[in-house]
């Protein structure tokens, strides 16, 4: 499984529409998607799927005008396709580099994080994209195993990182224990090692502690993770235990990882008082840049400064994702990168 920092051909977005839970706040959330789309187009191709054909046509016109104005024509790929929701990270295809160095796209089963929400349209979306030629000649391979992209981190060299709370949840693959799931990951994704985080969670997160909200590979020897220094915060004990897990992790040669702590944003609540899952770990690495979610809180600038030091050769682009967390996800959750050589519009 390639690392996210490896060359990409495109980023995939599944656009919100009135038939999704975004319907009441489309005016607030669509500008966030547009900001992500424009940022991606500066560096690579963009695949947009949308259930509403007229909205898709308008988006294609608007974003093609942006691309042409920046001397980047032909980067927008629009596909009419039904969708229950917008979390492309989890219903999108997971890339695999085979033994010949060629890319395959694996179409794992998606059941909305253990059947929490409707999922049938999302589970079929990759097949719709493939049927429109969005992935060029790259094969889309079905895999009879429930797995979301947000639950995995790859260093691109045979090591995967995940959380036990997510992958061992019985509502995903109920007949498989930890050893069976690890064997499946190794066989299917060519992994040599799986690092399991046994602690850590994020209030308001529907995914059962996806790794991309907590800890991320930034290089093969470097992990960024969220820290919670406030002893009065409900997360303090779990995040402290997670930090101990990370300190015990070793690279394949036995060397400890370099660890960088990301700040803990001030608590954000919705109108009903529910805490929302704001996290700076939910950044997206693309060609030449890192898109970083910010939330209009004092810790935003500190997070951006840290990630500038972590990724000195990439442009750091802040995207205000406060509207996204009202549906319990953030920037990385609504995107899925597609490796180099797949998309050729």
Automatic annotation (TrEMBL):
GO terms for biological process: putrescine biosynthetic process. It comes from the Bacteria. SUPFAM superfamilies: Pentein (SSF55909). Gene3D superfamilies: L-arginine/glycine Amidinotransferase, Chain A. It holds the Pfam family PAD_porph. The keyword RNA-binding does not apply. The keyword Hydrolase applies. One of its GO terms (molecular function) is protein-arginine deiminase activity. Keywords: Hydrolase. This is Agmatine deiminase family protein. It comes from Marinobacter confluentis.
